Amino acid sequence: MRSVCFLSSSYCRAMMLLPSLFTLLILFSSLFIILLCIHMAVDDVASRTKTVVGHNLDPTPWHPFNKEEADAHPLLLHASRILQCSYLSCRFPTTAFPSSSDPAAADHHHHKRKKNINSSSSTCPSFFRSSIHRDLEPWSRSGITPAILAGAQRHASMRIVIMGGRRLYLDLYYACVQSRAMFTVWGLLQLLRRYPGKIPDVDILFDCMDRPTIHRSNYSDVEPPPPLFRYCTTRDHLDIPFPDWSFWGWSEINIKPWDEEFRTIKFGSQAVPWKTKDATAYWKGNPDVQSPIRTALLSCNDTEMWGAQIMRQDWKKESSSGFKNSGLSSQCNHRYKIYAEGYAWSVSLKYILACGSLALIIDPLYEDFFTRGLVPKQNYWPISASNLCESVKSAVDWGNQHPTQAERIGKRGQGLMEELDMDRVYDYMYHLLVEYAKLQVFKPALSPTAQEVCLESILCLANEKQRQLLESSLASSSFSPPCTI
Ligand SMILES: *[C@@H]1O[C@H](CO)[C@@H](O)[C@H](O)[C@H]1NC(C)=O
Ligand SMILES: *[C@@H]1O[C@H](CO)[C@@H](O)[C@H](O)[C@H]1NC(C)=O
Ligand SMILES: *[C@@H]1O[C@H](CO)[C@@H](O)[C@H](O)[C@H]1NC(C)=O
């Protein structure tokens, strides 16, 4: 080498540079390979990371649905974003939320209803106690053991574990239709904000699809049922009803969080006084949901013969027109509003009752957590499913002959919904979880696959519209203890 270098200094320099060029080349290609590996690893981890939006989850086998069609915003988040939302958001939160005990946080809730600032605790609506007692009765002797709980897993779309009164962990098994999982988990996180440190450790299996699955007839004291939370139950089922996602908003059909939606509906209902409200019964909804009642209802569409007007709600069309015609508050101009169950219970009940019209409720099969507060002829009018049109007609005739009484019953229905503001919804959730926790005969522990979910991680996954609803339903810490049951 040295002798060669005497020959030509430039050749020599080139020869001396060669090894470092070679090193550089190796360095770059290894860097490239490392980056490629990281990229593949990211993709790989992301493709195994399950989210509340439904990433990497199949629809529930007991209630299949088309995920692509159901999701207003398809599951096209970048792999890195999935990882960021799932693994970094809760550890390194970038959004600063007003602390739930910060008084300014209370102002965040622009649409707060008149607040009961009595620090002495009030009494819960009487149906809270009886409902919770009835729903948890199947485990009053056996307690909830890990073995009993394990039986619920095959009916569940997710497992929710709350620890230390402040943290929530999820195991996701199946996707839920639309944004149900996101809003349901958000609701639980708000409960943790509302009563910081007061929610006991619980281990809950939850199904977010419509119909109850735990048949009463299959179980006894000797063989207690698996405890499974969902949005509704029936007299023949032992599923545990829990407030549905729409209390925090339903982004796909433009429904606002409950307090705000109630306020606008009540305001809208006052636009027309009872005397000048349309003297017929009104229903607007989707009849194509495998509901025999809704199908039967179509044949009552005759204001002359049955005193009823039955309208088809076309959500696809409403959605493309920006929901200009579907405002719930503009649907309170009739003296009578019909409630017909859909595929199971329907979230529409609370909006119908909120109108203050006389609610004509067709023999309900399903119960959600608050329908146990309904008393026939006290706060609604019962309609028989077997001679549907005649029954609607006779209710309308009765109401038009007794306008004062009809209006009073309608107002009591509205009153029931007014009493059930979000503060009370959280109180129901609180008491249900407290009573459930008392039945757990084990200390909840995390499974190896459990993942923490927090406000930031949900907002990270939410689309623009969902984020608006989520943020407007942010709860603040309560000044008073929960109502007493
Ligand atoms: C507070 O409590 C008192 C007595 O318990 C009651 O008279 C009053 O109406 C309550 N105030 C509010 C705002 O609810
Ligand atoms: C439970 O009971 C229902 C109706 O009573 C029945 O259709 C179903 O097959 C039963 N399921 C099991 C697992 O026994
Ligand atoms: C019910 O009747 C009204 C008036 O005749 C009509 O506009 C409406 O489309 C009918 N509803 C359904 C579901 O067919």
From TrEMBL:
Glycosyl transferase CAP10 domain boundaries: 198-443
Listed PANTHER family: KDEL LYS-ASP-GLU-LEU CONTAINING - RELATED, PROTEIN O-GLUCOSYLTRANSFERASE 1
GO-annotated molecular function: transferase activity
Transmembrane segments: 21-42
Swiss-Prot/TrEMBL keywords: Membrane, Transferase, Transmembrane, Transmembrane helix
Residue segments, region Disordered: 103-123
Source lineage: Eukaryota, Viridiplantae, Streptophyta, Embryophyta, Tracheophyta
Superkingdom field: Eukaryota
Name of the protein this chain belongs to: Glycosyl transferase CAP10 domain-containing protein
Family per record: Belongs to the glycosyltransferase 90 family.
